[in-house]
Write a sequence for this structure.
């Protein structure tokens, strides 16, 4: 009697220009990943972003009123964030790493 099993992996084939493959291979190499792993991770991450963008948020009218009230409040300054935003970026003149 033959045993059936559920397939856990599905092949996906793509036709890409050589320049695209070269870029993918270079990026995968920089990450220490195979082309397949790199492309799979990138595709899944992009798919998750699209799905999350389309996610419907439901709330009661009271909850929506409270949500809008919170958004309408004046912003509160966070001193640590202000200080961080004022620091020069690592590629800017004057940058000194924190010790």
């Amino acid at each position: 009697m033959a045993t059936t099993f559920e397939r856990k992996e599905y092949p996906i084939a793509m036709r890409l220009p050589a320049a695209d493959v070269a870029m993918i291979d270079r990026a995968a190499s920089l990450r220490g990943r195979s082309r397949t792993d790199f492309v799979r991770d990138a595709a899944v991450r992009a798919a998750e972003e699209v799905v999350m963008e389309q996610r419907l948020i439901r709330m009661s009218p009271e909850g929506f009123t409270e949500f809008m009230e919170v958004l309408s409040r004046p912003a509160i300054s966070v001193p640590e964030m202000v200080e961080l935003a004022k620091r020069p970026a690592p590629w800017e003149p004057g940058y000194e790493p924190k010790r």
Notes: The CA atoms of residues 26 and 35 lie 9 Å apart. The mean pLDDT is 92. The radius of gyration is 24 Å. Residues 18-86 form one domain.
